[in-house]
Amino acid sequence: MQRRPLSDAERRDWLRLSRTENVGSITFRHLLARFGSAKAALEALPEMAQRGGKRSFRLPAANAIEDEIARSEKCGAKIIASCEPDYPEALAAIEDAPPLITVLGHVSLLHKRVIGIVGARNASLNGRKMAETLARNLGKEDIVIASGLARGIDAAAHTGSLTTGTIAVVAGGVDVVYPEENRALYDQLAEVGCIISDMPLGCEPHAKLFPRRNRLISGLSLGVIVVEAALQSGSLITARMALEQGREVFAVPGSPLDPRCTGTNDLIRQGAVLTEKAADILAHIHSLPTGMAEPPISDIGAFVAPIDESDLAAARAKILENLSPSPVPVDELIRNCQLSAPVVLTVLLELELAGRLERQAGHRVVLIG
After folding, report:
1. Cis peptide before 179 (omega within 30 of 0)
2. pLDDT in tens, 92-150
3. Rounded CA separation 127/75 (Å)
4. Which of 5, 152, 160, 318 gives 20 to 30 Å between its CA and that of 259?
5. CATH code 1.10.10.10 for 306-367
6. Helix or strand or coil: residue 325?
7. Looking at the domain 104-285, which fold is it?
């Protein structure tokens, strides 16, 4: 994608499209490819959703978008689109990169080498000390630390990298402090670091938003360090996302008697880099390229081909018949239905806009309604 700044009108359209119900990151990109602009996509959405089976489809109010832009300017935050030069290159390279992010603080930090540090909220004293030490020593090597501003390991990682560069990725709006106990740290981050989110200003964090937050941490990073994490913890979700995104995973070993270390020890068994000091990370990331290529999205080019409405009408029943609550790869769906890629992808867009389809990692789709 060629990087270019958006005009004010384009930014409003991008923001409105990204805030539209059932429009996720991948769907947003497909809509741009299908219609050429966010404005044209917005005009087409109600009819597409109706074809997918949704009787009423509401777009976000234009004044709500204007209000979000005005509030971001008032608090000093910047809304950056994925096509713009200020958007972090590493994040743009993931499959489901958010179309827009809101950034409070020093945008320049997003363009340095970043390592994520995550771990337990109820971390031990030794765990917090380890996270802070790793962050401080990596910072001395001009590496920026990304974490989630949670208590425990996250807070320690931010504290250790305040003077060298740190990015807080939050689950709610960048103007919402969570948890409240980290308000002083939040204020420091806003002044000398960077706070980012793909959620609207004023959005309160809740459970479903934390996996989205986690994918941003790993997406920004060359690799993710896990310090103290129980099995089934959110930190292990971040590690899994890092692997899916082609990032390195580092894990600090711990006592097998401590439940907070069962997840990290298991990561090491599965091939994560055993990490005891900053040099263990540096040995790996210095061999990685500075830049990252855009993700190979094989189906985007299909939208340039013309689509006949009669072909769509005939295809909808066949595609629905081949979908189920079990994930199916889009490429396999196209082959089995013996339909053109533009037709299948357009019908999938209709179903998703109607709330009947969900996209999963690896270009797979699931019927949900």
Report:
1. yes
2. 999 899 999 999 999 999 999 999 999 999 999 999 999 999 999 999 999 999 999 99
3. 34
4. 160
5. yes
6. coil
7. Rossmann fold (3.40.50)
